[in-house]
């Protein structure tokens, strides 16, 4: 039996996921493979590098820095989250990412991206997290409208959540029989149509397939949730979700809100730990 972990995105709702995976790491819970989408990728990769605490530490430290994220960065670079600061200054200098530990960890790690030209999901196995593979990470978290497509390996890529927000079925196709899913919305959540589609049609006019994918994203997302609920009821999936709505914005500058979301993740995971250990046996 291969054990897999799927981590949904959700921008700064990913602080909930950070709390969940930190508790898992502290309890030496291991997986054969993990797949992250958007924030689930750029935060979840710390599972493979075995660095509990790092996600909340650097987000709490730098959430107020204009070069980290915000309107000023968007107007200057075309990206809401600063590429240089987020993907170079922090992991290479300010709060070092353990690239060596990442490479040595046998757990497979996949990131989900959306091909802007086709509107379809691509699933990239990231073995080394080197310069090129880091671009796939960045692409997975590059939200449409507020991010430029990331050009890497001949592709033009954007947020993986557009094409496949919760890639449980892909993990199952890859042979992961026991899958744990970390969601960032509560059980009763239903996704609605994107209200920013008129703006998307202007900013992404060069990518009609991407626009189409965004228009139908809510339908696919809700279908994925229904699939997950059915599998969960049958005991075929283990799902960890927040007990209530996470009160953070996509670019959250309030450290206390980030910490509250993180603590919610930790507390929720602690409540589920015994059940999770039984599921993974």
UniProtKB/TrEMBL annotation:
Residue ranges annotated for the PNPLA domain, each copy included: 5-172
Keyword NAD: no
GO biological process: lipid catabolic process
CDD domains per record: Pat_hypo_Ecoli_yjju_like
Protein's UniProt keywords contain Cell membrane: no
Keywords, alphabetical: Hydrolase, Lipid degradation, Lipid metabolism
Molecular function GO terms recorded: hydrolase activity
Organism: Roseburia faecis
Protein known as: Predicted esterase of the alpha-beta hydrolase superfamily
């Amino acid at each position: 039996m291969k054990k897999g972990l799927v981590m949904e995105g959700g921008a700064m709702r990913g602080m909930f996921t950070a709390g969940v995976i930190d508790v898992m790491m502290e309890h030496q819970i291991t997986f054969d493979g993990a797949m992250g989408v958007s924030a689930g990728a750029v935060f979840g990769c710390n599972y493979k590098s075995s660095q509990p605490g790092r996600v909340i530490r650097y987000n709490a430290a730098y959430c107020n820095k204009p070069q980290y994220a915000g309107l000023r960065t968007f107007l200057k670079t075309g990206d809401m989250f600063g590429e240089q600061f987020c993907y170079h200054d922090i992991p290479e200098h300010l709060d070092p990412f353990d690239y060596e530990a990442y490479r040595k960890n046998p757990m497979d790690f996949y990131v989900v991206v959306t091909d802007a030209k086709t509107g379809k999901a691509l699933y990239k196995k990231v073995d080394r997290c080197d310069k090129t593979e880091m671009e796939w990470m960045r692409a997975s978290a590059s939200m449409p409208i507020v991010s430029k497509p990331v050009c890497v390996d001949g592709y033009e890529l954007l947020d993986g959540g557009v094409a496949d927000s919760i890639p449980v079925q892909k993990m199952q196709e890859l042979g992961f029989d026991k899958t744990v899913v970390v969601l960032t919305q509560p059980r009763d959540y239903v996704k609605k149509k994107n209200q920013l589609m008129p703006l998307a049609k202007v900013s992404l006019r060069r990518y009609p397939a991407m626009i189409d994918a965004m228009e139908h994203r809510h339908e696919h997302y809700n279908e994925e949730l229904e699939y997950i609920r059915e599998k969960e009821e049958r005991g075929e999936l283990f799902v960890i979700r927040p007990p209530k709505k996470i009160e953070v914005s996509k670019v959250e500058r309030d450290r206390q809100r980030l910490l509250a979301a993180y603590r919610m993740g930790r507390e929720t995971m602690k409540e589920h730990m015994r059940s999770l250990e039984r599921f993974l046996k």
